[in-house]
Amino acid sequence: SRLLVFVALAAVPFAGSAWTATLLLAVVGLATDLGTPAVWAFGQDVGGRFVGSAVGWANMWGNFGVAVSPAFFGWIVGASTSGTGWSVAFQACAAVNLLAAVAALGVNASKPLVPGHQTYSGNRGS
């Protein structure tokens, strides 16, 4: 779903109308929500008896991003002298989602956070 978010966000600056941009942003929302159950399941799989800590850690970073992003994107838009600030902001979001998609390729839900502890999926780390 991150790749779909990447494509939709990268296309927003090139949308020919407000309706097209709205449709692309709706795709971003849908694709993000479709991937959410996998994120929570991953936290439960690797967390084992520490699932609260694992999911809480991930949630903390998400909340940090939500808190910082308005100032960050305001800075990007304000720093643009050529009037392309919002295009750069959407491209930055697209790039972050592409990075997340590539990073997800290395994720192994069968490996618990604490070696030797059994996960909820029944896997035991070495």
TrEMBL record:
Key word Transmembrane present: yes
InterPro entries tied to this protein: MFS_trans_sf
Domain of life from the UniProt record: Bacteria
UniProt keyword annotations, A-Z: Membrane, Transmembrane, Transmembrane helix
TM regions (residue ranges): 50-76, 88-107
Gene3D superfamilies: MFS general substrate transporter like domains
Name of the featured protein: Major facilitator superfamily (MFS) profile domain-containing protein
Organism: Planctomyces bekefii
